[in-house]
Design a protein that fits this description.
The chain is mainly beta. Helix content is 2%, strand content 58%. The strands form 5 sheets. Strands 13, 15, 16, 19, 20 and 21 form a 6-stranded mixed beta sheet that branches.
């Protein structure tokens, strides 16, 4: 308990007794706030309920939010009195989260009169907002003519969070996944949200003429590049008799 009484009792035998009572009422600063199961990751366009709590304050702390340095009030606040006469406060923020919030800082802030009398003033906990979003693709497209027997190289860049699974087929020929060993496919994950993939044909053959496309998907959607129409330029040989 942080509230009670102290009694000072002084007496001289047979003469008199003096008693003084002092009431102790101890105020406490809140503990640092903690997010409840929110790490900063969210799906683009999601309506998210984010909660944060702080315990141990006396009197009860005030709780609010800062989004990229701008104060945002809680959608709701819950104050619970503990058995030891301290308080638990929980703030809830309900907000649509979108991709344009990427890398913004969301902070949960608490304060009470005890903190405000110090150089600290408030305590906060922050997370960086990181949206999940469906893939977008930039790839070779249009029409290309390749001399038969020469090298063909196609490039494709995919941006998504999360990235397509490493086991996912990224290249398609005439609408079908490419699995032929004559096609050499490479993939380089440049970051958690960007990858680059290439398709190599060492000795292009006329049977490999057709439409090539790059595709990728995650749990939020899929994307497909416009097809690249590749045509073989056949070699002609002159026969001498």
């Amino acid at each position: 308990m942080y509230k009670g009484s102290v009694i000072c009792d002084a007496s001289i035998q047979y003469f008199y007794q003096v008693q003084q009572t002092v009431v102790l009422n101890v105020n406490l600063a809140p503990l640092a706030p903690v997010f409840d199961r929110f790490t900063g990751l969210f799906d683009d366009g999601e309506l998210r309920s984010i909660t944060c709590h702080s315990n141990g304050s006396r009197p009860a702390a005030k709780i609010f939010w800062m989004l990229n340095g701008v104060r945002v009030n809680s959608t709701s606040v819950q104050v619970i009195r503990n058995s030891d006469d301290t308080y638990l406060v929980r703030g809830t923020l309900i907000r649509h989260l979108t991709r344009n919030m990427e890398n913004q800082a969301l902070s949960c802030v608490v304060t009470n009169p005890v903190l405000q009398k110090t150089f600290i003033h408030s305590l906060n906990r922050s997370v960086v907002l990181l949206p999940n979003y469906s893939p977008s693709i930039s790839a070779d497209n249009g029409t290309r003519t390749v001399t038969e027997g020469s090298l063909l190289v196609l490039h494709c860049d995919i941006e998504a969070r999360p990235l397509p699974n490493p086991s996912q087929t990224l290249w398609f020929f005439n609408g079908f996944p490419i699995s032929d060993s004559s096609f050499n496919i490479t993939r380089v994950d440049k970051s958690v949200s960007r990858l680059s993939t290439s398709l190599h044909v060492q000795h292009f053959h006329r049977d490999q003429s057709g439409q090539y496309s790059c595709q990728g998907y995650n749990h939020l959607g899929a994307a497909k590049s416009p097809p690249l129409n590749v045509q073989a330029l056949c070699k002609f040989y002159t026969l001498y008799h």
